[in-house]
Design goal:
Structural class: alpha+beta
Largest sheet: 8 strands, antiparallel
Helix content: 25-40%
Strand order of the largest sheet: 9-10-11-21-17-16-13-14
Radius of gyration: 30 Å
Distance between the termini: 39 Å
Number of strands: 21
């Protein structure tokens, strides 16, 4: 490869790299989402627990693979809690969270139905269990206790900042158990506390446990590529490793069995996360299991609690179910914000999102925030790009001389290359300097892509006119077409490749990319269009300025 063709090959390599990245992303999506299961609405009155965790005397992880079903379906009514942010349904059997709706996040744009995160439907079941495992209850290998509550409907009233929902149960010996759920205003975090009051003549022993269980059924999207994330599955946090992914495929192959102090366990999906967070001072046995009915489980079994006659004991934990917003997750537990997975270029993505968020706080529009961030990025690399464009301008002016050399030396490539290099040296032109902006654009493009894909703040965020959601594709494909036209205009300013096949390939690239990225997020197309437009204007200005300077020298 000679120096004349170097920049053209690199430009083609840049586009080829983007194509490869797209194929890799699609393969990851196809692998993680083998089939889409439509979400059915959960029943309101008929609830069931078809599994009960099993405990052993040695306090090993819960063996959810050898669970015993309850003998029949319970017709107990669910307990409904409504705050300013969430609607939660709790099954009195076990006191498990079987439904969470996010009131601030509609299912679809302009929809009045809130997003359903946790649910107890057979095909998409996703629930949060917690309890006390002991030979005398409330949870045993034979079943879970059925708690009682003062009422079945709780609503956070105007001016009220907190709701406490007390669930009560006592065993045959008279030991009283109170499971308290604490809901607060403007908070997706739920406190879950146990109080054990032993007024019997027997010592009670048991282990607290927390677990998330769900089907491998990601939410269905009707927007193509926009509803897949870098990761769909489980994760845990330990003092040694703040963020450790555990995919559903790993759960199928191996069962996790790890002793952890503090930490958290989470289930992650596009835009949203749920997580159990035990007391930071407790040591738990973290585990994963897959139940016979296909529920992927991640959780923890706490240290044994012993309550002597006449004594009381408590156990506490936190549960988060809501949007993946970094500043909120940081407050819930250390490292929980890492569940916002920006991929291997996360350090660039974090900076880009930080800039976008600061701008959005001022102007209140994520679309214009993308535009301004794009302008700032171009300003950061202005001088580097200017040097590149000057080099391209010099190459374009040398094109007639290079063509003359090609005709002069014919098929003697060695002499042609040597003569071309001497021409570059004489004219003080460096063809390699035009490659840097192309190489810089690749990581920025990828990092911004993951910001637009992963940031729940951009979900259903409008820009102007017809763009009502920056996280999905342009419904009229205007932005992809503008992006393709901007690529074409930019190519017009560059020297054409000497090889006819390369020239045809470069001319086809704008059309190819317009079709290829038509279904990509409108926010990404907005970035690419603005970036190309700014690059075109900068390159045109530099070339115009150089031509003007040369004309003034001649006169």
């Amino acid at each position: 490869m000679n120096s004349t063709n170097m920049i053209d090959y690199l430009r083609i390599a840049f586009y080829a790299t983007l194509i490869v990245i797209l194929l890799i992303l699609f393969q990851a999506w196809d692998k993680d989402f083998p089939k889409a299961v439509s979400a059915a609405q959960p029943t309101e009155t008929v609830v069931s627990n078809n599994y009960v965790p099993q405990i052993t005397d040695t306090a090993q992880p819960i063996n959810s693979g050898n669970v015993n079903p309850l003998p029949a379906v319970s017709h107990t009514r669910l307990i409904h809690i409504t705050t300013d942010l969430i609607q939660v349904d709790i099954n009195p059997i076990g006191g498990n969270i079987v439904q969470v709706k996010l009131l601030q996040y509609p299912e679809e744009l302009h929809s009045t139905s809130p997003f359903l995160l946790l649910n107890n439907s057979p095909d998409t079941r996703y629930i949060a269990q917690s309890g006390l495992l002991g030979t005398s209850g409330p949870d045993t290998t034979k079943g879970q206790a059925e708690y009682t509550s003062d009422k079945t409907d709780y609503t956070l009233a105007s001016g009220q900042n907190e709701i406490k929902v007390n669930l009560n149960w006592h065993n045959a010996d008279g030991i009283k158990f109170t499971k308290t759920f604490i809901f607060q205003r403007n908070n997706y975090e739920i406190g879950v506390n146990y109080q054990i009051n032993n007024q019997s003549q027997q010592t009670w022993t048991g282990n607290p446990y927390l677990q998330l269980m769900r089907k491998n059924a990601p939410p269905v999207s009707k927007h193509g590529f926009v509803n897949f994330a870098t990761y769909f599955g489980a994760a845990i946090s330990t003092p040694e490793k703040a963020y450790q992914k555990i995919s559903f495929k790993q759960m199928d192959s191996n069962n996790l069995n790890q002793t952890v102090k503090g930490g958290w366990a989470a289930m992650i999906q596009h835009y949203f996360v749920s997580s159990w967070i035990p007391d930071s001072n407790t040591t738990s046995q973290y585990f994963t299991r897959v139940t016979p009915d296909g529920l992927y489980t991640v959780g923890m079994l706490g240290q044994k609690i012993q309550v002597n006659p006449g004594e009381n004991a408590t156990s506490q934990a936190k549960f988060y179910a809501g949007p993946a917003i970094a500043k909120n997750l940081e407050k819930v537990a250390p490292g929980l914000q890492l569940t916002i997975d920006y991929g291997w270029l996360w350090f660039i993505s974090v900076i880009i999102f930080w800039m976008m968020e600061k701008i959005h706080n001022v102007i209140g529009n994520w679309g214009w925030a993308i535009v301004i961030v794009t302008v700032l990025i171009k300003l950061m690399f202005y001088h580097l790009s200017a040097k590149s464009y000057r080099s391209m301008s010099g190459l374009k002016k040398l094109q007639p001389k290079i063509n003359a050399l090609k005709e002069r030396f014919g098929d003697d490539k060695q002499k042609f290359t040597q003569a071309t290099l001497e021409l570059y040296k004489k004219e003080k032109v460096n063809p390699m300097s035009g490659c840097l902006p192309i190489l810089i654009q690749i990581p920025v493009f990828i990092a911004l892509y993951w910001v637009l894909i992963e940031s729940v703040q951009l979900r259903q965020a409008p820009w102007i006119l017809w763009i009502h959601d920056l996280s999905v594709y342009d419904p009229y494909y205007i932005l992809p077409i503008l992006m393709g036209l901007s690529m074409l205009l930019q190519q017009r300013l560059n020297p054409p490749p000497p090889d006819p096949m390369q020239a045809k390939l470069m001319m086809a690239m704008p059309i190819f990319f317009t079709i290829l990225f038509a279904k990509f997020p409108a926010g990404l197309m907005l970035y690419w269009f603005v970036n190309n437009t700014l690059s075109f204007l900068q390159q045109w200005y530099i070339m115009h300025d150089l031509n003007k300077s040369e004309k003034s020298k001649k006169t």
